């Protein structure tokens, strides 16, 4: 493992570690709701998948909301993180601005990353990511939100996913009394 600590003048400090799980969050500048259409979210997801493949990362969980995104990925070369995020932000903002016919600068604000510490932290983060559409009141039921990998996870391993949500429920969870709404 290689540890590289980067301190930036106007951005959060980033720790770059090889072969570890990372939680990423990125936000639209000034939290503007610019990802409001299905097409803008699809553009972001396409670019995320493209760069995941290009950098040979393993994408585990993801969600795209109207003004931010979260994803959990296994990163094999920590020093690739700033290049990955810069490429993702530059390319997705170009295509989204073109779709919306807008000229906003900047589009994305800083990004935040966090190394996953252990299994408990991993599952807490994974459920937090998937639960975000409910947390932000986009839907009451995760089945109703198409811009995350919840549907894929549920189809592949519903029992394991349900157990994960019950064991590692997000701190902000509100609708958890009715697990059948899952």
Q: What's the gist of this structure?
A:
The protein has 182 residues and is of the alpha+beta class. 40% of the residues lie in helices and 25% in strands.
Layout of helices and strands:
Elements: E1 3-8, E2 11-17, E3 20-28, H1 38-55, E4 58-64, E5 68-75, H2 81-100, E6 108-115, H3 119-135, H4 150-167
Antiparallel strand pairs: 1-2, 3-5, 3-6, 4-5
Helix pairs in contact: 1-2
Structure description:
- This protein has 182 residues and is of the alpha+beta class.
- It folds into 2 domains: 1-116, Alpha-Beta Plaits (2-Layer Sandwich), CATH 3.30.70.1290; 117-182.
- Helices cover 40% and strands 25% of the residues.
- It has helices spanning 38-55, 81-100, 119-135, 150-167; strands at residues 3-8, 11-17, 20-28, 58-64, 68-75, 108-115.
- The longest helix is centred in the middle third of the chain and has 20 residues, at 81-100.
- The radius of gyration is 16 Å and the shape is globular.
- The model is unreliable at 174-178 (pLDDT under 50).
